[in-house]
Design a protein that fits this description.
By secondary structure, this protein is mainly α. The protein is 68% helix and 0% strand.
Length: 211
């Protein structure tokens, strides 16, 4: 399958192997997501080309496109760029085009499914965040790029692990200090006891006998 259809290939893989969705969410978007959006929007030419190249039915490639959008683009952790099927290098023209394609898919006048129609709010909000140069700059300043390849769950686990390790190290240091203090006290006590015994002639110090 050509580079033009790489996003379609990924979408089909996810449709038939949903267990891979978690991995796809943590990776950069594949090339030519805009073409995939055309498939989802029922662009006849795009559907025919995708079906022919993938050797799947038009319904299959359309279902795969919808699945990719809903599972990857509309993931709860996606930022406004990713929701619109783009990255931060995308031009305003590309962002506007993708927004229009997504609205063709999910607008209530086109798609009657209530759950899918609710996605319009997500798309329009993402576009509203980026639709002017000023808003885009402000959004970029307040929303740093997502660290792909590392989910929030794994980051949280890492933090928990670091905290546990830190607590364990502190606990070990405190126990070591406690043991040293106990040992020092014991040695002082033994020396004191030995001095008392020597004082009363009960210690190990030998007394020279008079000849």
């Amino acid at each position: 399958m050509t580079t033009e259809l790489s996003a379609v290939r990924v979408a089909l893989d996810l449709l038939y192997a949903p267990s891979r969705v978690r991995i796809a969410k943590s990776r950069p978007l594949p090339a030519r997501v805009a073409f995939l959006l055309r498939v989802a929007a029922r662009d006849a030419e795009a559907e025919d080309e995708a079906a022919r190249a993938s050797e799947r039915s038009r319904e299959a490639v359309h279902a795969a496109a919808l699945f990719f959008i809903e599972q990857v683009l509309f993931d709860a952790e996606s930022d406004s760029y990713r929701i619109l099927g783009a990255d931060r290098s995308a031009s305003m023209v590309e962002l506007r085009r993708n927004m229009a394609l997504l609205l063709r898919v999910y607008h209530p006048d086109v798609e009657r499914d209530a759950d899918r129609a609710s996605s319009v709010a997500k798309v329009t909000q993402a576009w509203d965040n980026l639709k002017t140069a000023e808003r885009r700059i402000r959004y970029d300043e307040t929303h740093p790029p997502i660290e792909l390849g590392r989910s929030k769950t794994s980051a949280s686990r890492s933090k928990v692990g670091s905290k546990s390790e830190s607590k364990g190290r502190i606990g070990w240091e405190r126990r070591s200090a406690g043991r040293r203090e106990t040992r020092d006290r014991a040695e002082k006590f033994i020396r004191l006891l030995h001095a008392i015994l020597v004082l009363f002639g009960l210690g190990r110090r030998r007394v020279r006998r008079r000849s």
